[in-house]
Amino acid sequence: MEAAAEPGHLAGIRHIILVLSGKGGVGKSTISTELALALRHAGKKVGILDVDLCGPSIPRMFRAQGRAVHQCDSGWVPVFVDQEQSISLMSVGFLLEKPDEAVVWRGPKKNALIKQFVSDVAWGQLDYLVVDTPPGTSDEHMATVEALRPYSPLGALVVTTPQAVSVGDVRRELTFCRKTGLRVIGVVENMSGFVCPHCAECTSVFSRGGGEELARHAGVPFLGERIGAAPSSLYSGWSDLRLPTVPEGEKNGSSWLLSSSSSSSRTGSVPLDPQLTRSLEEGQDFIQEFPKSPAFPALFSIAQKILNETPAQLS
Amino acid sequence: MEEVPHAIEEIKEKMKTVKHKILVLSGKGGVGKSTFSAHLAHGLAEDENTQVALLDIDICGPSIPKIMGLEGEQFLEDNLGVMSVGFLLSSPDDAVIWRGPKKNGMIKQFLRDVDWGEVDYLIVDTPPGTSDEHLSVVQYLAAARIDGAVIITTPQEVSLQDVRKEISFCRKVRLPVLGVVENMSGFVCPNCKKESQIFPPTTGGAEVMCQDLQIPLLGRVPLDPHIGKSCDKGQSFMIDAPDSPATLAYRSIIQSKCVCESCEFTWRRGQKVI
């Protein structure tokens, strides 16, 4: 490992995953949070590094606002969300004195803090480090990719919503990944359809067809329209969350919009679920509390894909 | 940076023909800044005597060309002009992978070198956050004076916490806040007509935040799936669905009169400003 030459604090981390999207508000922080929770449920140790310096959402999603980062001999101690210390967080949100304070920084200052986040946080041993990013393809992204490059990040999850406006931004983000040599693990379509809690009708709140457009663009087959509600009985057995490996052929087709032989264009779509929003607002463990939600199988299947790609266990 | 004061003066000269400058801001992304900017522009331009310009300074994620249905063109109607970095890219896959200084240079060029002509309203759509683009636009327009900022949010706390930061930014740079628009506020199922909160206002939504911070709430726009569809097609939602509650909400915001601490402002031409 190249990291051996420069034994930083990331040396004990097995896999690094970046969560990116061109557009804001498509659910990067949500997907980062849920991915971390799903990986934890699979027995992994996970860290989340929030490099959204102007709009950090990770502390609130874990109900960790107001927690402080401490200094130890080896650097900054991340904030642990549970007793077992299975999830640790680092965010600029923990460094602000007042939560409403704006971080009004230009690029160079942001770059410096990101470098510090990468070099000075004492993560210890982690199976996965999930890096949540702000929207766009600018300073934070370049600084993050540059700083992490020596540690060979596993790749990027690119998040989109179905509308064409969002897909346009994601195409630009894919170009960013290509130009910076970052592998795309998959494309996640979030907020695809809203299932009315009153009548169970599924509405495409944020337009539709975005996944299809992206599929056409990437030159892969479009396998079908994403549905919102999944029959809960299918997943009720999964509530213990020590989930068995789902064989490739049985993988819930509806939660994988696309599958492709090319390395960069698989899509998992997560339907819009107000329970999910609410639980993130309140910092609850969505995956534990709402295993019957239509969003759950999609979130699980994304985590499963990552686990399948990275079979090695933390020794 | 020493050329900045020079640029500020040049931009002041250039902006002499621009009556009102309004920024559309939000802390969080994806809350509807571009959608609101586009509809504000459409709404103001419905009066054919009002000249409207829409400037998109989201350099890395320009959505305005798509939402306005423009491919390469920069004038939609005779009285509505649009400028965006999106027009300068050769392909939809072109990413603008730029650090701050380059983005700032682009914004300077937009303000100084675009021939805006006689304009009643210049609406500036911004990217999320409180960083280079925001500082630059405020700095470059310092001498030309910005009327103020409209801040867009969604009802949930995760968005409001970022909006509070944006408001603290406005206060730091002395940018008047014209008011807050709560977007995606409730969703009415097209099938059963019952309302759900997709983004639940767990801390009271924009209303409580506005009371706390003593800033005006300009209105609430419900989530209507037609809005996204119209934006994808590049059409004005207000024309596509003239009777939708969301259209009525947009119209009432566009026509609203906002009185805030530092300014008295009306959208409509001919009425008193300041």
Automatic annotation (TrEMBL), chain A:
Residues 254-265 have a biased composition (Low complexity). The keyword Cell membrane does not apply. The gene is NUBP2. Binds 4 [4Fe-4S] clusters per heterotetramer. Contains two stable clusters in the N-termini of NUBP1 and two labile, bridging clusters between subunits of the NUBP1-NUBP2 heterotetramer. InterPro entries: Mrp-like_CS (IPR000808), Mrp/NBP35_ATP-bd (IPR019591), NUBP2/Cfd1_eukaryotes (IPR028600), P-loop_NTPase (IPR027417), YlxH/NBP35 (IPR033756). It is found in: Cytoplasm, Cytoskeleton, Cilium axoneme; Cytoplasm, Cytoskeleton, Microtubule organizing center, Centrosome, Centriole; Nucleus; Cytoplasm, Cytoskeleton, Microtubule organizing center, Centrosome. Belongs to the Mrp/NBP35 ATP-binding proteins family. NUBP2/CFD1 subfamily. Component of the cytosolic iron-sulfur (Fe/S) protein assembly (CIA) machinery. Required for maturation of extramitochondrial Fe-S proteins. The NUBP1-NUBP2 heterotetramer forms a Fe-S scaffold complex, mediating the de novo assembly of an Fe-S cluster and its transfer to target apoproteins. Negatively regulates cilium formation and structure. ATP binds at residues 22-29. This is Cytosolic Fe-S cluster assembly factor NUBP2. GO terms for cellular component: axoneme; centriole; centrosome; cytosol; nucleus. Keywords: 4Fe-4S, ATP-binding, Cytoplasm, Cytoskeleton, Iron, Iron-sulfur, Metal-binding, Nucleotide-binding, Nucleus. Heterotetramer of 2 NUBP1 and 2 NUBP2 chains. Interacts with KIFC1. Interacts with NUBP1. Residues 250-274 are annotated as: Disordered. GO terms for molecular function: 4 iron, 4 sulfur cluster binding; ATP binding; ATP-dependent FeS chaperone activity; metal ion binding.
From TrEMBL, chain B:
It comes from Diceros bicornis minor (South-central black rhinoceros). GO terms for cellular component: cytosol; nucleus. HAMAP family: Mrp_NBP35. Its main location: cytoplasm. GO terms for molecular function: 4 iron, 4 sulfur cluster binding; ATP binding; ATP-dependent FeS chaperone activity; metal ion binding. The keyword Iron applies. The keyword Iron applies. Pfam families: ParA. One of its GO terms (biological process) is iron-sulfur cluster assembly. Keywords: 4Fe-4S, ATP-binding, Cytoplasm, Iron, Iron-sulfur, Metal-binding, Nucleotide-binding. This is Cytosolic Fe-S cluster assembly factor NUBP1 homolog. It is found in: Cytoplasm; Nucleus. Component of the cytosolic iron-sulfur (Fe/S) protein assembly (CIA) machinery. Required for maturation of extramitochondrial Fe-S proteins. The NUBP1-NUBP2 heterotetramer forms a Fe-S scaffold complex, mediating the de novo assembly of an Fe-S cluster and its transfer to target apoproteins. Implicated in the regulation of centrosome duplication. Negatively regulates cilium formation and structure.
